[in-house]
Amino acid sequence: MIDRSHLVVVPDADALAERVARHTLDTAREAIARHGRFDVALAGGSTPKAAYALLAAAPLRDEIDWTRARFFFGDERCVPPDDDESNYKMARLALLEPLGVADDAVFRMHGEDEPRAAAAAYAGVLRATLDRDDAGIPVFDLVMLGMGPDGHTASLFPGTDPLDDDAALVKAPFVAKFGTHRLTLTPATINAAREVAIATAGATKTDALAAVMNGAYEPATYPVQIVRPRDGRLWWLVDEIAAKNVRPA
Ligand code: 6PG
């Protein structure tokens, strides 16, 4: 059973976007106060997109110094950066361009390259750029995640190999249901973060969230369960429909 002490339930998807945006700002402020920077891994998906739009517009955009932020990605589709499927493109349009983020503060996964080479290259970027923990694993201030109706998170899908416990930081699993590779942070990297926020909303998530929260620990079936930051905090930010069948702790 998942710890619910950091489960926040809000009325609907709009309220969730607002909550995610405010949570991101709070985490950014804390990170900037601690080490002068905010290193965040962005998520793809609909909830983050709505949150990015709020962060990129007044009044929220004026709440922190965005020149202190560096933007990374939790996962990417194996497409070029100008493809409509690209998580980078979504973040660029919704967040990075409206905020006027400098190119050298954006570290994208190269979805256009050969997947395994792209994963290895991104691992190198993380090692060269981020703080490291005692085990040498790069540490994000915040990893933003979503959850799919099948319990996937980032691009850790049921039945894909990055759930294997090894030292790789980034992998390129073949996702059979889409017939394509994806690029994704591994559990080792996600769980080294100072904070992880999983945001999910809507009726298509109700069953998965109930299984994830109420059920046994079965990350091969519900990969999002593998998100358990070693020294950091885990927040679940969800709407009422998604949380409908979650039993109280
Ligand atoms: C992606 C995501 C993925 C997403 C979930 C939930 O690239 O699509 O990183 O893991 O977060 O599928 O997506 P929604 O928020 O759109 O339901």
Roughly how many Å apart are the termini?
9 Å
Number of helical regions: 6
| Major beta sheet, strand line-up | 1-12-11-7-2-3
- Rg computed from alpha carbons, rounded to a whole number of angstroms: 17 Å
Fill in the CATH topology: Rossmann fold
Structural class: alpha/beta
What letter string, H or E per element, gives the SSE order?
A: EHEHEEHHEEEEEEHEHE
Q: Count the strands?
A: 12
* The CATH architecture: 3-Layer(aba) Sandwich
- Which bin fits the share of residues in helices? 25-40%
Largest sheet: 6 strands, parallel
| Average pLDDT, all residues | 95
Number of domains: 1
Write a structural description.
- The chain has 249 residues and is an alpha/beta fold.
- It has a single domain (7-55, 68-183, 204-232), classed as Rossmann fold (3-Layer(aba) Sandwich), CATH 3.40.50.
- The chain has six helices and twelve strands.
- The protein has helices at residues 13-35, 46-55, 87-99, 115-129, 187-190, 206-214; strands spanning 7-10, 38-42, 69-73, 75-77, 131-132, 138-139, 142-145, 170-171, 174-175, 180-185, 195-200, 233-239.
- The strands form three sheets. The chain has a six-stranded parallel sheet with strand order 1-12-11-7-2-3, with helices on one face. Strands 4, 8, 9 and 10 form a four-stranded antiparallel sheet that branches. Strands 5-6 form a two-stranded antiparallel ribbon.
- α2 (46-55) links the parallel β2 (38-42) and β3 (69-73).
- The longest helix is centred in the first third of the chain and has 23 residues, at 13-35.
- The radius of gyration is 17 Å and the shape is globular.
